[in-house]
Each structure stands twice: as structure tokens, then as C-alpha cells.
Amino acid sequence: MTWFEQNQSYIWQLAVQHFWLSIIPIVLGFLTALPLGWIAARHRRPRAVILSAGSIVYTIPSLPLLIVLPSVLGTSFLDPINVIIALTAYAAALLVHTATDAFTQVPSAVIDSASASGYSGWQRALTVELPLAGPVLLAGVRVVSVSTVSIATIGPLIGVSNLGALFTDGFQRGFTTEIVIGVIAVVALALVLDLLWVGIGRFAMPWQRVRQVAS
Amino acid sequence: MAIEYRGVSKTFADGTTAVDAFSLRLDSRTTTVFVGSSGCGKTTLLRMVNRMVEPSAGQVLIDDVDVATRKPVELRRSIGYVMQHAGLLPHRKVIDNVATPLRLIGVPRADARRRAHEAIEKVGLDAAIATRYPGQLSGGQQQRVGVARGLVADPNILLMDEPFGAVDPIIRAELQQELLRLQRELGKTIVFVTHDIDEAFLLGDRVVILQTGAQIAQVGTPAEILAAPADDFVSRFVGVDRGRRSLRIQHIDGRQVVVDGDGRPAGVLT
Amino acid sequence: MSGVIPQSWDWLTDGAHWSGADGFPHRLAEQLGYTALTVSIATAIALPIGLWIGHTGRLRGVAVVVTGSLRALPTLGVLTFMVLWRGIGLTPAVVALVVLAIPPLLAGAYAGLESVDRQTINAARAMGMTEWQVLGTVEIPLALPLIIGGIRSAVLQVVATATVAAYIGLGGLGRYLFDGIAVRDYPQMVAGSVVVVLLALILDAAFAATQRVAQNAAAPQ
Fold first, then answer.
1. Which of C77, C159, C201 sits opposite A183 (nearest CB)?
2. What is the per-residue pLDDT across C84-115, written as a single tens digit (0 to 9) for each?
3. The pLDDT of residue C1
4. Total structural domains within chain B
5. Residue B110 burial by CB count (10 A; 0-12/13-18/19+): exposed, middle or buried?
6. Centroid of chain to Cα B190
7. Do B89 and C138 touch (CB under 8 A)?
8. Complex ipTM
9. For A184, nearest residue in chain C (alpha carbons)
């Protein structure tokens, strides 16, 4: 374990890079998927298109996508922006399905009564539907968070440095310990992010904390 | 096929006592209705007959044989079971659904289908629905198919768990009349569970009014119960204390009109 | 970079790249071979367990935790670790691929069984079906769409991870990616990537069609 002690600052650096490479796509993916999911929940025709597009994007394997993206976008090959865009696309693709489900399961009776009470379209969407879709959305974000942190580890293969470098470096040097530490670090980062989302969820949805009495 | 409950109790894993020392003898070839509010244990009692629920204490006997001594699968194949929402297999055609109990006891497919056709017609359904799938049927039709399936193997005992609860009132009335007709024709031992006292009085030769823990509030024929409710609970449950069942005669235009306690007309004496 | 796309097209259509051990047919066959092998093994392991969990309802909590944990493991980490631990070769790589393919299969199986209406299962038992009959004639046919969905996810997962596995010496289409990365041969990289993406899309479409067939069989309207 002395290698670990010697390289703590290096590992920490990688972890911080990995953190940003993960959290930006998750947030951007979420913000993209939210309106798309809302539309898909309300309107049948767009729903088929949106969900199909999401499925197709999610089907594309990660490494090939990272390699093809620079040619399509005109970015430089080694630019981290490729990784962020690819991860955002995956996050959005997954979350679009979740968001659609989340808004679909909001009871129509509640939406009806909100409209009848005089809520405008925007008000209703933001203050009634969004909070009620919250728990399902949160569950989706947690799943996407884990997969984003995991997929990001292939960044070093195309020269974008993050915790995955512990795998490539460890492999090239035949150093198993480094790889194991890398796996632990990745899982730990995923856990930290998970706690972050749960915390945000508790803050944003205080009514979920109260035990339901009437069923 | 007489059914007997001897000192039967059931406590579930979470601590709730659904049935507390229940004893009763049900005569064969009659319809016995267990009626009570949700959670009184009536469904649990029903499901003890075919060992879908095992009693924590006591015995359930069919023709003086403890059901616990019979293998559950074999026992269930000899008893007809009809439940709410029919529980039909959505991926099989109606004819195959109805034929399933026969196939389970080894009846060859052609025979089974022939008898299934007979059962379908017996419950008042058009033969054409035999080739449809359950998803293409209305709620009332699905329930009739469920009854056909329960009867197809000609079991002596028919267990019915709120079978007409999920359909609308008009269909429910039709199904109830259908059941009465079938029972006149076939004379099965029927155990019927419902929370609707009117349905119980309509269908039951004997009605068992239950309270929590399957405690018997009163047992008797509908007429006996109406004429002499055992206590306040029964009076309230049956509706005797309210206006609807307290009838008297008013003379109007020379006719004898029967009115209820609130003065609303219920019928005319002929 | 603008020249890369026509260059990749040239690379792709170059006859030399369609023959021999490094030709497309061979690499494609390798990729499909790894995929078929991995998915078969993973299915043989995960499906019975998943069906048991879904049918009996037991150990579900454990299954969810195990599935979640395996999904969190980074692909590259598992691959490099296996090879360092057990040496370069087909077996360590396949073991790694199998471990990563198990979560979707397991989840598809127990989620599929859980999606079957309890009333239908109740009625089947009450009619006197044995547990095996309930599983075979009621639960599995009705759960089939989700089970196939699990296999579909697993297949796509393996195609993707097998591509990355070229890094640890495996063959398959990933070879074009890594050989290209090593010498900065962009046309090769992009050509190889496009082929992998097309393979994934085609397999996905095939499974989607199969799922629809199973869906119609489970609930004919």
C-alpha cells in the first residue's frame, strides 16, 4: 500500500478530473432530458420519436463514439469536450426514458385539479408536475450517475486523463495493485455522487421524508 | 360434498390474526355466503378449503377428510375456483383457458376442448368468443369465462371470491341471475365470499355474517337474519335499522303500496 | 480533421482490408464469436438464478445489490485486472466479459417475472398447477418480453466491452480502434468504429423485433 501513500495527490488529481468529467454530463443530460420527457409524456407522436432516438443513442458503444465524434463535430481528437459530449448524450438518452415515465405516472387527477384551480401551463408544470415526478427522476439520475462514472473510465484510451489512467498505467506496468485501487476509487466516487443526489433529493422534496399515514 | 371448519385459526407472519377459532359446518349442494367488511377474514376462510392458505390451528374437512392430508395440487384440481378479475391467462385463447383444468387432470385435448365449449355455452356466452383472447373481452365476459373454467371439470365444490365485484351493477345483476340458474341446474356446494349484503341475501341459501377475526355475528337463511337480527352490529350491517328494510303498507288510491322507513315506495302488493 | 471521413471511407472500401486475419470478415467473426460465447455462458448462469429469484420472491434484495454493484464496476478496470491476474488469453477476457454481462440478464429475468400479474399466478395455482407448471406455462411466457430485453441489453453490452477488450490483446473489431490509436491512423480508427456502431444498431433492431413478437404473444389484443 505504500504506492498508494506515495501517489495520493496523483490519485486525488485524477479523481477530481473524473468528478468533473462525470458531473457535467449528468447535469446537462438531466436538463436536456427533462423537457423532452415532459413532451413525450404528454404527446403521443413526439414520444415515439424521442424514445427511439434515445434508444439508438444509448445503443452506440462508447469507445467508437468517442473516436467518431471529433470527425463529426470538428473538435480536436484529444479534447476532453468529446468525452463530455458523449457522456451527456448517454445520460440524456437514458434519462429521457426515465423522465417520460416520471411525468406519465403523475396522477392525471392531480393535473386536472391544478388546471381547474387556475394554474397556468408553466406554473403547473414547474410547481405541480415536476415535484411529483421528482422521486422517479431522482432514481433515474442515480442510475445514470453510476453508469456515467463507469463509462468515463475509458477516457485515457483516447488521451483524456481521469481515474481510468490507473487502469491503463497499471496494465502497462503489470501492477495489479494500481488497478485495484483504481476500481475502488471509481466505486467510491460513484458512491459520493450518489450521496450528493440523495441529499439534493431530500432538500428538494421534503414531503418525501414524512411517513405516509393515509394510503 | 359437505365442508366443515373445526376450530380453525390463522395468524399471518406479520402478526395479524385473520381467523380466530372458527367452526362451522356447510351442507353440501347449498350456497353458503361469507359476508363482512374488508379484513374480516372471509377470503382467508375460503382459501383454506383449497389449501391456498394453511390454518395455524384447527382443521378444514371435506366429507370428513382433513384437507391437510391431501396433496394441495390434487386437491385444487378437484375444486373449482373463481376470483375477482377472473385471473385468465392472457396469452391463451378463451377455449384453452376454460379447458386448462381438464388438461391438468389429463383429459386429451380434443375432449377437453369439447367440454370447454359446453361450459362456455352453459354460462350464457356466445360460442364465437372461444377463439378470442381474454384481452379482447369485456369485464363481464371475462368473469363468465372464469365461471366456465371453474365449472368445466364438474367439481362438487365451487369457491367464489368476490367474483362479481369488479363489474358494473347491470352486468353484476346478470351474472348473479346466471349463477342462480346454474345452481338450480347443477346443485354444487358453493362457498361464496362478498362484502355486499344484498348480493349475499340474493345468492345465499345460508348467510354467515362475519366480524374481524372471522367471528360469526350471525348465521342463518336471509329470511331468518332479516326477521331476527342477532345484535346491533347485524342490524346495522343488514340495514334493518335504517329506513330501507323497514317496510310498511300505505293505502293509496285503493292499492296497497309498500313503502320503506323514509316513506319512499318500494313496491306494490299484488 | 475534415479529410478523415472520406479517408475512412477509402479505408473501409479498400479491398486489402477485406481479406486475411486482419480483414473485416475475420474480425467481425471474432467479435460475433466472443459475443455469442459470452452471452451463452452468462445466460446459463444468470437466467436460472434470476428465474428462481423472480418465482420464489426470495433473495431479491441481495440480487438488486449484486446487480447494482456489478454494474458499477468499470469495464476497463475489470478487463485489465483479470488479464494481469490470470494472464493474457481468451479465458480471462471472457470471464471478465461474462461478469459484466450478468447484471442485465439477471435483472431482466427477475424483473420479468415480477411484472406478471399476481392474480394470474394465483388463479393458476388455485387451479392445481404444480410450481413448475406455473413457471413454464404462465410466468415465463408472460415475462418473455422483459427477459428478451435483458438478453438484448447484455448482447449490446458485450459488443461494446469486447471492443474495449482489444486493449488487452483480444481480437475482434476493437483491433482496428486500438491499432489505429497506436499509430494515429485516423481512417482505420474511424472505419473500425463505424462498423462497430453499425453492428450494434443491427443487433439491437433484431432484438427489438423479437421483443415485439414476444410482447404480442404474451398479450394478444
1. C77
2. 988 888 888 999 999 999 999 999 999 999 99
3. 47
4. 2
5. exposed
6. 7
7. yes
8. 0.86
9. C73
